[in-house]
Fold these 4 entries.
Entry 1:
Amino acid sequence: MTYHSTRGQAPVLAFDDVLLAGLARDGGLYLPQTWPRFSKDDMAAMAGLSYAELAARVMLPFLDGTLREDDFTALVAETYAGFEHAAVAPLKELGRNDWLLELFHGPTLAFKDYALQLLGRLFDHVLTRKGQRVTIVGATSGDTGSAAIEACRDREAVDIIILHPHGRVSEVQRRQMTTVASANVHNIALDGTFDDCQDMVKAMFNDQAFRDALRLSAVNSINWARIMAQIVYYFAAGTALGAPQRPLSFAVPTGNFGNVYAAFAARRMGLPIAQLVVGSNANDILTRFFESGTMRMDGVRPTLSPSMDIQVSSNFERYLFDMLNEDGARVRAVMEAFRAQGRYEVEPAVMQDIATLFSGHRLDDEATRQTIRRLHQETGELLDPHSAIGVAAGRACRRDAAIPMVALATAHPAKFPAAVEAATGVRPALPPRLADLFERPERYDVLPNDLEAVKAYVRRAARVTA
Ligand SMILES: *Cc1c(COP(=O)(O)O)cnc(C)c1O
C-alpha cells in the first residue's frame, strides 16, 4: 500500500517514508491510496482480543510490508503495556446507550498518548534500521508537548525540543514536560504566546538549509501514523458494543479534526458508524461549517478547553479529499482560496452528504462547567472540560436513542483541576504514578522571542551530525 498527498503533487510514498515525512512536500497530507476493509467476519473475530492484539490487527494492513509483522506486533505490545488500565481504552456506561470511552490511561493523561507512544517507538525503529537520526521540533499549548516528550524520551535516534509559551501553560502541563530527566529532551519556555512558538517552529522548517542540516522532523497531528493508531480505539469500542451486528455513534471533542477523522476512517474500513458528532468550544469553526457550509477563519479565544483552542482544523483537509472524490487539484484550489480569503464554501450537494454523517455542537465555558457539574451529580464521574464538551455534544445531537452514543473522554480530570474543582467543588487527584509531579525537579530554558537564539539552542541540542 502506498500513500498519496491530498494536494496531488507530492511523490507517492511507502509507510515508513510517510511516517518520517509528516507533511507532504506539496503542503498536503498523506492518505492511503487504497483502504483496507474488514468484513463482518473479520470484525466478529475481533471481539475478545486484547487492545494490543486488536491494534496490531487493525494497523498491519497499513504497513504493507515496510515493517516486519513480528517487529511491529512487539512494538505495539510494548506500547500499550505501559498504559495504566488493563483494558487500555475502557468503556463506562453513563446511562442507557450513553457511553464514555476513556482515553486518558496513558503516561501523560490525554488521548494523544494512544498514538504518540506508538509513534516514538516507530520512529526509533525505522530510523535505527536506516542508520539515521532526527531532531524533532514542536510547539505546544499543553497536551501535545508532554505526550511527544514522553514518547521520545531516551530514544537513541531522536532528540526532541519543545517550545511552550513561558508562563502560559497550566502547571500540570508544564511539569509533565519539564520534569522528564532525559538527555535527549529539551524544553524551551519562550517569552511569547503559543502563536509565537508556532511561528518559530514554522520559520525553522522553512529554512531549508537548517532543516536539512539538523534533519528536522515533526510529530504533530498531520502525521498519518497518528491517525492510523487512533483508528484502533474506534474498533475496540465498536466491537465491545456489538459491531458488526449493531451500529454505534461517536461524539468527539474536536480541535484539529485528527481524532474524529480517525473515526471516519474506521467507518471506511467497515465499522458500522451511524453518526459522528463534533463538539467544539467557543472556537467553533467546525460547528459553524456544519451549520452553514462555509469554513471561515476567526481569531482564537482562550477557553477552559485549551487543547481545542484552534483557528483552523488542519486534518479537515483529509476529509475534504474524500468528499471531493480524491481530486487533489480540487483540494489544492480550495485550500489556496482558504489561505488567500480566509474562507471557502462547499457545494450544497456535497454538504448534504456531509450532513448525513456529521453534526456539530458548540459549548461556551459556562455550559461546559454546567455539564461537568451535572455529570458529577448524575453519575459521580469527574469529567475534564474537553470530555464534557464531547458528552454534551453527543446528547444534544443524537438522532436515534436506540443506537449507542459513545463520547470520547480525551483527558483525565486531574489535568485540568481548576476547572473541574470550580464546577464540582471536588479537586481531582493525580493518578499514583504522577502523585509526586509537584516535587520533581524541573528543567527548562527561558529564551527570548528571537529566531536566531532559538536556532542556536536547537543546534546545540541536536546530536545529528550533518
Ligand atoms: C488534542 C486534544 C483534543 C483535540 O483533538 P483533535 O485531534 O485535534 O481534534 C481534544 N481534547 C484533548 C484533551 C486534547 O488534548
Note: The chain has 19 helices and 15 strands.
Entry 2:
Amino acid sequence: MLSRRALTLLSFCLVSLLILLLTAARGRNDWSLDSSRYKHLLPGSFTPGNDIVSVHVPSSQPRDPACAHIPDTTNILLVMKTGATESFDRLPTQLMTVLRCLPPDNFLIFSDMNQTIAGHPVRDSLDTVLDTVQRANRDFDLYRRQQVCLVDQAACNKHVEAGTATAGWDLDKYKNVHIAEKAYRLRPGYDWYVFVDADTYVHWPNLVQWLRRLDPARKLYLGSVTMLDNYAFAHGGSGYVVSQAALNEMVAQNPGVGNRFDKKARRSCCGDYVFALALDNTTQTRVTQSWPTINGEKPFTFPFKKDHWCQPIVTMHHMNSEEVSSFWEYELQRYADYTLSLSSSSSSSSSSSSEHDPPPLRIKNVFHHFVKPRLTSHLQDWDNLSDDRFYLDPDAPPGAPGHGRTFEDWQIARAKKDYLSAQERFAHASWQNCRDACDEEPKCFQYRWQDGLCGLSWSFKLGAPAPVGKDELTTFSSGWNLRRILRFVDEMGDCGEKVPWPKVH
Ligand SMILES: *[C@@H]1O[C@H](CO)[C@@H](O)[C@H](O)[C@H]1NC(C)=O
Ligand SMILES: *[C@@H]1O[C@H](CO)[C@@H](O)[C@H](O)[C@H]1NC(C)=O
Ligand SMILES: CC(=O)N[C@H]1CO[C@H](CO)[C@@H](O)[C@@H]1O
C-alpha cells in the first residue's frame, strides 16, 4: 500500500510530466527562429577588433499561452527608459503585457535610480555622468533626493514645491547616450536595439516582421523624424531602432561616448536629440524616417487619413496603463485566430518564416477596433483636435463669439481669411455654422467649435474630453462627418496584399 505522501509525490510527478509534454509541443509551433540570421554577427565578421560580440542562445523557457502570438524576439533587445517618479505607475502594466512575453535577457529597464520592480532590475543610467556635470547642477537635485529617500518615492516627492514632472524631465536628457552605452556593454550580441519610453507601446509581431526585412550589419537608425535647430533626429517617445552595426561603432569603438556628451546634454533640451548627435558624431549615421509605423500618437489621437491607414503600426506613445492594457487585450484577441490556424501548418521548419506570418496589424485595424464604435455625429464638452484650418474673427465686436479671447499665433496662421464663401464667413459664429462649413468643404472629416473658434480637420481622430463649459459659448463642440468617413473607409478597401513598410534605403 502506498503511503499518502508517496501518492502525492507520484501525482505531482505525473502532472509535471504532462505540463512538460504540452509545453514542448507548443514550442514547436512558435513562429520560428531562422538561426541563419545570426551568422553575420559572429565575432570578427564585420567589425574587426571588436571583442565583445557574443552569440545569443534562444531561451528554452516554457511559453506562456498569452504569448503564443509573439514571434521569436531573441535577436532584438528592448531598452526601456523611465524615471523613479513614474516607474511604479508605468512598469507594472508593461511587465504584465508587452514585456511579459520577452525572455528576461531580451529587455533592460533604465531609470534615474537603482530599483527593483516586482523583482525586475531597474538600472540607474546616470551614475556614470561626469561629476563635474552633476555637481552644483540643479537638474540633479531630484537625482540626489531620490537616493536619500527613506520610504517610497511617492511619499518623498509629495511635499516638494516644484513639480516632480518637470524635475524628472530636467534629468531625462542626460540619460539617452548613457543608456545606449550601458545597454550595449551589458548585451552586445543583438541584431537590433529598440529604445523606448515606459509609455511607449511596442507591437512585437510587426516589429519582428519589419526588422527581419532589414540588415543589422548596415548602420541604421530608424525612427519618427523630429527637427531641432534644423537637425533631424528620431523622437524618443515614439521609440527608435538602432542596428548592431551602428551601436557597435558608437559604443564599442568609442569608449566613454556617454561622458563626451554630458556637457552637450546640459545645454540641450532633450536626450533623444543628444543621442542623435552622439551617433552622428561617432558613426556618421543619420535617422531614416520610419513614421507612421514608428508613431508618437495612440489609438484615440491617430489622425486617420490616407497616410495613416494601410501602414503597419510598430509603436505608439503616451499610452497610460489603461491604454496599454486595452491594446494588449485587443492584440491577444486579434491573433488568437491566426495562432490557431498556424499551429497545424508551421511545424515544418521553413526558413522563409514570412509565409507563416499573420497579416501585419495596420493602422486601419486600430480605427475599426478602437475608434469606429465610438464615433457619433456630435459631442459636447469634447475636443476632437480639429486644427488643420480655422475660422475666427480676431476683432470680434462685444457680444459676438470670440470677443475678448486671445487666439494663439499658430491658430491665426492657420486661419482662412480670404475668398470666404457665405458659409465660411460665419463659420466661427456657432457650432452649427462650423459644422455646415465642414460639410461644405469636401476634404473636411470633422470640426470643433468653441468660443468663436471653428476648426476643421482633414483627418479624423477621436480626441478627448474637454473642460466642461460654463455656457453654450465656452462649451467645446465636436462633430464628425460620418458619411464622408464611411465613404473613405469604403474607398480604401482592404489595402491589398502589399504592406507599406517604411522605406529604408
Ligand atoms: C546602481 O547599481 C550599479 C550596479 O550594481 C552600481 O554600479 C551603481 O553604483 C549603483 N548606483 C547607485 C547610485 O547606487
Ligand atoms: C565629434 O565631436 C568632436 C568634439 O567632441 C569634434 O571634434 C569632431 O569633429 C566631431 N566629429 C564629427 C564627425 O562630427
Ligand atoms: C485634449 C487635447 O489634446 N486638446 C487639444 C485640442 O486641440 C487644441 C488645438 O486645436 C490643443 O491646444 C489642445 O491641447
Note: Confidence is low (pLDDT under 50) at residues 22-57, 343-352.
Entry 3:
Amino acid sequence: MESRIARAAARAQRNRSDIQLVAVTKKFPAAVIREAFELGLRDFGENYVQEFEEKHAELSDCIGARYHFIGHLQSNKAKKAAEIFDVIHTVDSAKLARRLNAELDAAAEPAGAHSSKDVLIEVKLSDEPAKAGAAPGDIAALVEAIRGCPHLRLLGLMTMPPWSDDAETSRPYFARLRELAAQNGLGQSSLSMGMSHDLEVAIEEGATIVRVGTALFGPRRKAA
Ligand SMILES: *Cc1c(COP(=O)(O)O)cnc(C)c1O
C-alpha cells in the first residue's frame, strides 16, 4: 500500500506527506485494528456507529489512534458518533451539523468549553438513489451552517463515486470534487476521495485522504 501511494504521489508531483491513509476496518474485529496499530497505522475508518462502539471499547490502550466515521450518519446516532470518532467525513445536512454541534456542546466540560470535532461534507455527485451526500448546489449553505457551529471544524469535502471496476471512471468525480472545493473557498482544504481500486487516480486529482479497506485487509465478509 505504501508503495502504491508513494508512486502515485511521485507521478502527480505531490508530497507523500500531504496524503493521509485511512485504513477502513468495517466488518473486521478489533483485533485487526490493533494489529494494524502495532504495525504503525494510526487512522482507521468505520461505517457503522454501533459496530464500532463495541470495538472501540476494546481499543482503549491504542493511544494515538484516530477514528474516522465514513458511513451514513443518522441524527439519532450523532451523540454516540461524536463520542467515539475523531473525524466525521459524512456531514450532509445543516440539520446533522447542528445536531452534532449541540451534542458536543452538551458534552463539553466545563459547560461551554471549547472543544471541536473535525468534519467533512459528503458530496453526492452521482444520481444513485442509495447514496447519501449533499448536492453540489447545497455546499455553500452547508459550509455557512458548519462555520456557525463553534464545536465543528470544517476540514473539507468527501465523495464516493459510483462503483466501477475501471478506476478511470472515478476520475471525473474526483476532479469535480476538487473544483467544488475551490468554488466554495475550500481550495486549501482536505479532499477525502479514493479507495482500494482508484486511489492512484484520486491522488492524481488532488486527494489528501484516501480510504482503503480491501487492499489492506482483504475482502470483507458479507453481512450475515
Ligand atoms: C468501505 C469503504 C471504503 C473502503 O473501500 P475498499 O474498496 O475496501 O477500499 C472507503 N470509503 C467508504 C465510504 C467505504 O464505505
Note: Residues 24, 26, 47, 70, 160, 195-196, 211-215 surround pyridoxal-5'-phosphate (CB under 6 Å).
Entry 4:
Amino acid sequence: MTKKNIKKKFIPHNRPTLGKQEEKVAVEVIRSGWIAQGNAVENFENDICQYLGLPPGSAVAVSSGTAALYMTLAIYNAKEKNIAIPYYCCSSLRNAVTLAGGNPILVDSKMDSPNINMETIVPSMDIAIIPHLFGIPQKISKGLSKTFIIEDCAQSLGAYVDDVPIGLQGDVGIFSFYATKLITSGGQGGMIVSRDSAFIEELINYRTFNQLDVQKHLFNFQMTDLQAAIGSAQLRQFTKFMKRREEIYLRYQDANLPLLNNESGIQPVRFRAILQTPKQAEIITALAKNNITAAIPMQQSELVGSKDNYPNASYWIHNTVSLPIYPSLRNEDVKRIIKVVRKHL
Ligand SMILES: *Cc1c(COP(=O)(O)O)cnc(C)c1O
C-alpha cells in the first residue's frame, strides 16, 4: 500500500473520557445488587455540593438536564408565566418550558457573544433560563433581581464568575451529564442545585413519584446508582480533564486560531473551542476531507421563530465552527486540526 492510500485516523468532534475508574465503580455497583436510585446517587449529589462549596443536601440528581429544567419550572408554577430563554440554544429549553405550560419568550444573543443578552430581559418576564454556552459563563445582571433566575450550567461545570462557581449566581442551577458534556453519569444524567431547602425538599418529593399520596401527575426522573457511581468517578478526575482541555485550547490559541473571546471577570472552562469565522462551510468541509469532524454549534434548522428577529443569533449561527476538544485528543491530532484550519482561514 502506498502512503497516499493510508487514510488518516478519524478524529471525532467529541468523545467521552471513560476508563478503568468508571469500569471499577460500575462493577462494584453491579455486584452490590442495588442499581436503582440509592446510596451512590446521594453520594454523587454530595460530591457536587462539595465541588461547588454548598452544604450537603443542596443538590438533587435526576435523569437529564432537560428533566432538571422541567422539574424546576413545574415546582415554581411556570404555567402561563412568561419565561425568557435564548433563541440561540438547544431545543431542550423550549421543550422544558412548553411541557411545564410556560410561555417561552425568545431573546437574542449578544453582539459580542452567542450568550443571551440579559439587557433585553424585562421585568414582565417572570422567569429566565440563562445558559452559559460553550463553557464561557456570564455574570447575571443586577437588573434581573425581580426575575427568578435558573442558571443553565449544562456546558460549564467548574466555571466561575467573580470567584462564584456558576450555578450559584441565580436562584437555581442545573447541570447535564449527557455523554458529551464535561463529565457524564453513564451517558445521561442531570443535577439541580439550590440554597433553598424548601425547594430541594419539593424536588425530592417530586422525584419520589410513586410513593406519595398526592393527586398530582409526577413522572419518573430518577438517576440510577449505576449512573451516579460513574458520575462521581468522573468528578474525581475532573481537574485532570479540565487541565487537558485547557492545554488543547492554548494550543489552538497559540496557533492564532480566531477563537471566541472571553469576557472580563470570568473564569471559563473549555467545553468547546469555537472559531469565529465567516468561512464556516469551507473549514468544516476541509476538515471532513482530512477525516476530522467539526460542527456548527447551533444550526438554523434547530431553532424556531423568524431569524430576522434575532440578528445577533443569526450572525453566530453562520460564523462559528466548533473544533474537537476533549481529554483523549492527542497533541498530534491537535496539530493536524490546526494545519487544516490555518490553510482555510
Ligand atoms: C445539554 C444541554 C441541556 C440538556 O441536557 P440533557 O441532559 O441533554 O437533557 C440543556 N441546556 C444546555 C445548554 C445544554 O447544553
Note: Residues 64-66, 89-90, 92, 131, 152, 154-155, 176, 178, 190 surround pyridoxal-5'-phosphate (CB under 6 Å).
